[in-house]
Design a protein that fits this description.
There is one protein chain. By secondary structure, the chain is of the alpha+beta class. The chain has two domains: 1-117; 119-184, no CATH class. 48% of the residues lie in helices and 13% in strands. It is built from five helices and four strands, in the order αββαββααα. It has helices at 20-27, 63-96, 126-137, 144-158, 160-179; strands at residues 38-41, 45-51, 99-106, 109-113. The longest helix has 34 residues, at 63-96. The chain is globular, with a radius of gyration of 21 Å. The relative contact order is 0.10.
């Protein structure tokens, strides 16, 4: 595969990851998860979410015990599969030129292992800075950076359907671009 070279200092886009979910499903050893892993891709990172079987605790168990057992199951999986997960992640990173993180679900418990926190620069005018400062002053966040991350998360939660529609439309545009004429 050939990719355009970028001018020095410019960001280059990683290769397409259209087949990442299928490729990763084939690369993950059988028996790790109870269902096909969910693969979430952006231009910086690939997160692989897998589901484990819930521990059997019997009938009368508290929610705290259930959560502790699920967390224990996830921790044991993390320790037992560390070397194999690293091996698979290296293959994925080489193929797709993105960092890889593993997320595990067990019952109602979700844990994400060592994932990327990418810095993002932005310029905000005073009204936007005042919003962030209010969140910091109120103790919602410790810094403007954390307040901005909180705002982005909140918007994402309340506009998921719209964001999903937008992502679908962008995928369609990408498909049309790939089908279009190429320049030499």
């Amino acid at each position: 595969m050939r990719y355009r070279s970028a001018p020095p200092g410019a960001r280059t886009e990683p290769p397409p990851a259209d087949d990442a979910a299928a490729w990763i499903t084939g690369a993950v050893p059988d028996g790790w998860f109870t269902e096909r892993p969910e693969v979430v891709v952006d231009r910086d990172e690939i997160i692989i979410w897998g589901r484990l079987t819930e521990p059997d605790l019997g009938a009368e168990v508290t929610e705290a015990d259930k959560a502790a057992a699920q967390s224990g199951r996830i921790n044991q999986f993390r320790e037992d599969t560390r070397e194999d997960r690293i091996r698979v992640a290296r293959q994925i990173e080489h193929r797709y030129q993105r960092k890889v993180a593993w997320g595990i679900r067990c019952g109602d418990t979700n844990e994400l292992f060592t994932h990327l926190a990418a810095p993002v620069m932005t310029r905000l005018r005073q009204p936007e800075r005042q919003i962030l400062d209010t969140l910091v002053d109120a103790g919602v966040a410790r810094s403007r950076s954390e307040a901005l991350a909180w705002c982005v998360k909140l918007v994402g939660e309340h506009t998921e359907e719209w964001l999903s529609d937008l992502r679908s439309a962008m995928t369609k545009v990408d498909e049309l671009r790939r089908q279009g004429p190429t320049t030499a």
